[in-house]
What we know:
- This protein is of the alpha/beta class.
- It has a single domain, classed as Rossmann fold, CATH 3.40.50.1820.
- The protein is built from ten helices and eight strands.
- It has an eight-stranded mixed β-sheet, with helices on both faces.
- β7 (230-235), α9 and β8 (257-261) form a beta-alpha-beta unit.
- α2 crosses α3 (103-114) and α5 (163-177) crosses α6.
- The longest helix has 15 residues, at 163-177.
- It starts with a strand and ends with a helix.
- The model has no long low-confidence stretch (mean pLDDT 95).
Amino acid sequence: xxxxxxxxxxxxxxxxxxxxxxxxxxxxxxxxxxxxxxxxxxxxxxxxxxxxxxxxxxxxxxxxxxxxxxxxxxxxxxxxxxxxxxxxxxxxxxxxxxxxxxxxxxxxxxxxxxxxxxxxxxxxxxxxxxxxxxxxxxxxxxxxxxxxxxxxxxxxxxxxxxxxxxxxxxxxxxxxxxxxxxxxxxxxxxxxxxxxxxxxxxxxxxxxxxxxxxxxxxxxxxxxxxxxxxxxxxxxxxxxxxxxxxxxxxxxxxxxxxxxxxxxxxxxxxxxxxxxxxxxxxxxxxxx
Length: 288
């Protein structure tokens, strides 16, 4: 379906739908600094062909959604959370199944505990606990050294207005976060090129989310209070949130189920594991 510009609070968010309205709705939520493009079209159509109404959308500052000056996001992390339900509202959807990667998984957890009447289920992909864990829960492993180095050291300045340089930088970062099963270099360049060409201000897309990343509102309750059906999909080679993060969520959310993704890093599920991911999501979202 053609992309739609939806009014959501004080922003306009770009969304695209697949399948038949009235089928169980799946809202796909990308990670930080990522647009809807990271949910590949073939992935969305496969879910739609299984009888799901699938929605992907651009976060603020990505794709064709409202953008803000670099370093001056006119929104908070809480806005990024409520935007997801705002997209559902704009499409007239009373209940949705949420599927979120990384930051999108954190958003899914928050909405699952805040709005269980609106959330039919959550699927958490390569993320970690966004809510308080049990007091006696063991600590979780830190990011791999290569990720700590990426965040902890000054990176060379990238000219985000230079298309080739910007694509090179993001493709390099994707490889750093990826596992042994990941996008091919050609796939990564094609995806990032599409992301770049659709985004109003690419510098803002790669900057502003990190400014508001910790700006969510306090939530009453913890991981054990999530009462919506939960599926955890987690890469066995995730360098940002190593596999024990996924195991902990599956253990601490009542009734949650863990499906490991062999060889996958911290990324949207690559095509090689779709035979695992798609049936798991389709089965998990079978109910309204």
